[in-house]
Write a structure and sequence with these properties.
44 residues; mainly alpha; 2 helices
Length: 44
């Protein structure tokens, strides 16, 4: 029962970061978006 706990926790965090990173790089605002994610995760 340990793997079902770790996988859902890590996957939802990694997937949005990859998606937002691709969106950010596409619009040339990657570092800013990633910085916002870091602040959000740190605050959360």
């Amino acid at each position: 029962m340990t793997t079902p706990l770790t996988t859902p926790l890590t996957t939802p965090m990694i997937t949005p970061m990859i998606v937002l990173e691709k969106i950010g790089l596409r619009y040339g605002d990657g570092p800013h978006i990633l910085r916002d994610i870091d602040l959000t995760l740190a605050a959360g």
